[in-house]
Amino acid sequence: MSTLNTKLKLNTGADIPAVGFGTWQDKEAQEDAVLEALKAGYRHIDTARIYGTEPAVGKAIRDSGVSRKDLFITTKLWNNSFHPGDVEPAIDASMKDLGLDYLDLYLMHWPSSFARGSDLTPKDSNGKIQRGDTDYVETYKAMEKVLKSGKTKAIGISNFSRAELERLLKETSVVPAVHQLELHPWLQQKDFVEFNKSKGIHITQYSPFGNQNEIYDSGKQMGKLIEDSTLVEIGKKYGKNGAQVGLAWGIAHGHSVIPKSKTPARIRANLEGDFKLQLADVQKIDSIDKKLRFNDPSKNFGWDFYTDLDGKKI
What we know:
Strand content: 5-15%
Low-confidence stretches: none
Number of strands: 10
Oligomer: single chain
Distance between the termini: 45 Å
Helix content: 25-40%
Shape: globular
Strand order of the largest sheet: 3-4-5-6-7-8-9-10
């Protein structure tokens, strides 16, 4: 298999493998998929409490025989556990399901809190999500304590706006190691990416294939990102497909990428998206930004996300 196995540096000094394996959706398929990924050579696995895939990820890790020290494991705090008293029990529950005694990275999944309790999606009598009253700054301060405890080697965020991030940096002590966000050639967010980098925050791109995911209704009335003619044409030069080119573009910008698949051939092919693009090809892809955001649960969550970022629908 042809892959560079690129590693990128976090502000903690740790290395993060550039290509990770995403485990969102297809819960029942994840044990086999993660095991396949680990056999193929992935060493960075991304999960989250809300995915319900932590037990499957843990079982696959154990069955793989891969040494824990060679792995980079990320999971995420869910919105119902934002109260400062709930953060440590939440990471403990995740570690128990994963069968691990520490995490490499623990992310706040969203800046929005839900009502406190065991229900992951608490709803009122009208079926609307019940908002919590814990401020994300207080949640992050509790995550800083978990970091000091050694239960995670790094902490970070996901899905923050610039204003939310600026406030977090101002009112907390630990600069996030990672900001995980929707990023792909059709949603490049260049200014926001540069802002994160200027603060020493590494970018992980989720949904690196954009509207390939069937869950994104807004992406169904158009062609697929991975079939974009620019990506496909560039790919011919390297013997790669559009999806692999899209991943290589992200890595060329110093980002990690977390594609997901349950198909063994695609799992292996995505790892081969770690190859070097010539600068001219990176620049060609830089020019196809459409500012198209596919993931925006503002209405469902009762929180206005991404208000100051590219791709926000007014």
